[in-house]
Design goal:
The complex is a heterodimer. By secondary structure, chain A is of the alpha/beta class. Chain A is 41% helix and 15% strand. Chain A is built from 9 helices and 10 strands. In chain A, strand 8 (188-190) and strand 9 form a beta hairpin. By secondary structure, chain B is mainly beta. The longest helix of chain B is centred in the middle third of the chain and has 7 residues, at 20-26. Chain B is 11% helix and 32% strand. In chain B, strands 2-1-5-3-4 form a 5-stranded mixed beta sheet, with no helix packed on it. The chains are: A alpha/beta, B mainly beta.
Chain lengths: 260, 66
């Protein structure tokens, strides 16, 4: 197969796009997809401070890398769950990546914050580690974002993750969770009008949605997908203005494509 | 050719397939669910194979570095 862009030898073919790419243009393609999704769902702008939850795996580190390339103010956040060698290896991967990109990384330790690790919590509660792990991560990600003054919490969930979550929620009749499965979860406020405070920061998943094809006839609609999604899923109260009225997106940095 | 498979890690000998898609069909693996690697380079479905190739078929999974 040949690269759709430069006609050089391709290394990746993507059937749903009916296209193949060389290494350099595949990286460009992924970056373009993420940039389009951020814009289409009005996830955030260049003035926002982003906290990117990273696990040390390829999905979250790749997203952090892309956001830095796109010029966003993105800080990494790693939560040490105390899962033996796995946690130490994944933390080392995050530290090495942050150093390679000269990016800021915040590290917190579950045992230091709460006095238990995920394996210990699993034994205490006699429940599968996943349940306590997910709950603690969501709480600690949000707490770190609030305490450190970040506007947006970004996670590296992709479409595969969303499909797995969707099936899980359907099979277990988690109807409340089904309503909250969206690329953008608006911030939640608490308090009387005029004195509200944020209790849940805005959470976005730039890899969890597929941007609309450029030539789609519906692309000219004036209503963003984020706005329509919020209306369809009973939007929570929000004080956030539309990004379309704010600063334009940052200019994209040149990306080396010599790898092709 | 030698093909390294994951979960569990193992190496199988395969003879006959002349391209990646034919190899995956013989191994009964869904092409969209894996990456096929030769000499640290990804291969597309139509890439030709040789009998002395050493390949890795790596599942595409979320949730970890491996």
């Amino acid at each position: 197969m040949r690269c759709k862009v430069c006609r050089e030898h391709a290394v990746v073919d993507i059937r749903r796009h009916n296209a193949a790419f060389c290494q350099g243009h595949f990286l460009d393609h992924i970056s373009n997809q993420v940039a389009k999704t951020i814009k289409e769902f009005e996830m955030f702008g260049p003035e926002d401070r982003l906290l990117v939850a990273v696990s040390g795996g390829k999905d979250s580190l790749a997203l952090w890398d892309l956001l830095l390339d796109l010029g966003y103010d993105a800080t990494g956040f790693y939560l040490d769950l105390g899962i033996g060698g796995y946690s130490s290896r994944s933390k080392d991967a995050c530290i090495a990546f942050a150093a390679s990109r000269d990016a800021k990384l915040i590290i917190r330790n579950l045992a230091e914050e709460h006095g238990y690790t995920v394996p210990e919590l699993s034994k205490l509660t006699r429940r599968a580690p996943c349940s306590g792990c997910g709950l603690n991560k969501r709480y600690e990600f949000n707490r770190a974002a609030l305490e450190e003054g970040f506007d947006i919490l970004v996670t590296g969930h992709n479409l595969d993750d969303e499909v797995a979550t969707l099936f899980g929620n359907v099979l277990h009749w988690n109807t409340d969770m089904l309503a909250r499965q969206a690329p953008v979860l608006e911030e939640r406020l608490f308090g009387s009008p005029g004195s509200e405070r944020t209790v849940m920061v805005r959470k976005v998943k730039p890899r969890s949605a597929r941007p609309r094809p450029t030539r789609c006839s519906r692309a000219s609609t004036t209503s963003s997908r984020s706005a329509r999604w919020s209306r369809a899923t009973r939007s929570t109260n929000t004080k956030r203005p539309s990004l379309s009225s704010r600063s334009p997106r940052p200019a994209r940095r040149a990306r080396c494509t010599s790898g092709s | 050719m030698k093909v390294k498979l994951r979960n569990p890690d193992r190496i199988v000998e395969v003879s006959g397939p002349t391209n990646v898609l034919a190899l995956l069909r013989e191994l009964q693996i869904v092409p969209e669910a894996v990456l096929v690697i030769r000499d640290a380079t990804l291969l597309t479905r139509d890439e030709g194979l040789n009998e002395d190739d050493e390949l890795e078929v790596r599942p595409v999974l979320s949730g970890g570095a491996r």
